[in-house]
Amino acid sequence: MGQAELQNLIPLGAVLHHSLSQPKALELGAGVRLRQGRLHEVSGASADMFAIQTAAAQDNPILWMGLHRDIVTLNPSGLQAYLKVEDLILVEAVSRGELLWAADQALRAAGGFCVIIDMPDTLSLKESRRLQLAAEQGGGIGLLLLRGPASTSAAQTRWECQPRCAEQPSWDWACLKGKNGEAGRWRMTEQLRDRKGGASAKDTLHLAAAASA
Amino acid sequence: MPRILSIWLPQLPLDRLARHGDPRLAGAFAVTAEERNAWRVMHANRAALKAGVKPGQALADARAICPDLLTEPSDTVREELLLRALWRWADCLSPRVSLDPPDGLLLDISGCSHLFGGEREMGGESLTRLSDLQIEARIGIADTKGGAQALARFGADALNVAEPGELRAALADLPIAALALPDNLISELARAGLSTVAHLQDQKSAELARRFGLHLTQTIDTALGRTPDPVTPKAADPVYAARMTLPEPIGFLEDLEAVLERLARQICGWLEQDQSGARRFQLTVRCVDTGDHHLGIGFARPCTDPAAVLRQFSHPLSELEIEYGADWFRLCAEHIEPIRLKQTSFGEEAKRADDRLILIETLGNRIGFDHVRVFQAKDSHVPEHEFEQAEAVQAAPRWVQAPRERPIRLFTPPEYVQVETPGRPPKAFKWRRMDFSSETAHGPERITPRWFRDEDLRTRDYWKVQTRQGRRLWLLNYPGEETEDWYVAGEFP
Fold it and tell me: Which residues constitute the domain of residue B449?
């Protein structure tokens, strides 16, 4: 399925779900769109990169929450090439329950935050539905980085992200599941523009998509 | 010349217990403290003194002398609270009162004494009022702080007054210890045959300074008023607290919230009047059966909004277990800070900052403010020291771009890899039970550690390796080591 078809599908799904209001969507480039006010699941070895790209595409504060072992490895001097480190807030939960509570609060809060949840295992349907409802209330975007196997969930989309072996850093993104019929495969390549001139961190990376890989 | 009144409270710990109506004070009683590795008698009441117990004596000796002696360890916190209460009370004597811890008060009574009919009358009145409060006191009035303190502590009577300009004569007969000098200096002076203040006054100050140091001459000068030594009064900080006592205990969450709302509205009104806000609120709920429960919440910025207080308390209140109800509530604002009024109704920026802080407060109040953090840049070339994490409440986020390309995940300590096919970097290896083989590698980037710090002092070589499996890893090796061990130090996106 190509990107042109995908772009046609999104408004149709939106009409089905919310009869009048046109949902806002984040444009990640190359036709990859993520609906705001929704929870999205990401798995795979380069799930981090997908989350970073999403966070960089919007300009609200970013909350990266997880257990200590996942939060402590984040390196801001690597992240600075993609997003504004000042916007990043780290939330270190002690247990799974606390992590879910914090995610719920952050998604529900006014301000439309981008909430990246580093989940140590899978979520049950009930838990993901609660987070989904919270995201709808807050209007932000929730990204669930799944470390464990995927299971039935209430998330809007599920993505599988793998790095590729190539000259330039590149990734394969596949949308495996979409509530409104979003699906497709993308090959993303980092195209560094002028590395020195790029004052804004977002400009340093340009994603180009090839037709369905 | 100012006039200073010094109040000395020699038996403050005993007075504290007497005010509580402690029945043990009827017999021989002493307050003890641990000093120089032994429990010693600090204060003894009249009956104990009569039996031969002396302050400073070891408790075992005191017990041997007086077998009926009852004792209590001193409680410095409560004693200080009593002293502070007296410090506020002393406002009725003079507007300029300062604490003289651990057991005294200093009052600047210049221009106050005529209100009481003279200095002696003022001193007498103070003693009467203090004895009404069941506090034993001694008072010295002189031109200087040092002089008044010396007269209060070493004067012959309960009230000692040195008339203006006659301090020198009044101090002459007192022992040297009256000058509040360090113990070793007092014993040195005693060895030199100087035992009273008069002996010191006879000596030339240059000679005293040469032999005993400048501290001694400075103390004499301030005590005699040759160098100024003013009383620095401190106004008590305003207390923002409100309490509510109910005729019947309540237990429903809605009722508790209604009480809290009233208290919060009252306190926030006061705070707003004074143009300040509180960073912490403490709520005490007294249950009829289980006693006091203390609940606390924090804020990321000074707060004066009752609704915000209510919102943050909703979680701790819901966790509170009340079985038979609570009938006494006290809300207290702490960490008071001035607030600068800002226009927040316009402007997207201000609203976004507000939303961010509200979320930090909500998260921090539940999972701890030390678990909600931001990155801050640090000046270092060692990858794991290029940044640190600071509490999001305390620090405004500030980031300085690091100069070199770094992985987005950094593993400290680096994770060991099992080399399958050796090479530099290895051609095939196992990491986290996954097989990898390198396609291309960039490097090495050699980093020498900071020798001036106590850390791992091995030189490091970093390689950026593109694996055939896709992942881009940051491999680490310590050159010059016996074993060719490889580690994964980080992962690029």
Answer: 409-492
Claim to verify: residue B197 and residue B311 sit in the same structural domain: no
Which residue is associated with the tokens 């405004």? B396
Domain boundary pick from B231, B260, B287: B231
Distance of CA A157 to the CA centre of its chain: 10
> Phi and psi of A192, rounded to 5°?
-75, 125
> What is the SS3 string spanning B271-307?
HHHCCEEEEEEEEEEEECCCEEEEEEEEEEEEECCHH
- Alpha-carbon distance of B18 to B135, in angstroms, equals 9
A34 assigned to some structural domain:
yes
- Using CB atoms, pick whichever of B410, B468, B490 lies closest to residue A165: B468
Are residues A94 and B439, on separate chains, in Cβ contact within 8 Å?
A: no
Nearest CB partner across the interface for A165, out of B356, B398, B470: B470
Closest CB to B492: pick one of A72, A85, A169: A169
Cβ–Cβ under 8 Å, residues A213 and A185: yes
Q: What is the CATH number of the domain that holds A50?
A: 3.40.50.300
Among B231, B255, B282, residue at a domain's last position: B231
Backbone angles phi, psi at A41, to 5 degrees: -100, 140
Q: What is the pLDDT of residues A180-191, one digit of tens each?
A: 887 888 888 876
Domain count, chain A: 1
Nearest residue of B to residue A46 by CA position?
B493
pLDDT at residue A210, rounded to an integer: 41
Q: Are A61 and B392 in contact (CB under 8 A)?
A: no
As beta bridge partners, residue A146 has A119
Sign of CA dihedral B363, B369, B372, B373: positive
* Predicted interface score ipTM higher than 0.95: no
- Which chain B residues are closer than 8 Å to A106 by Cβ? 359, 363
* Interface mutation target, options B399, B437, B464, B476, chain A, most CBs of A under 10 Å: B399
Share of chain B above pLDDT 70, in %: 98
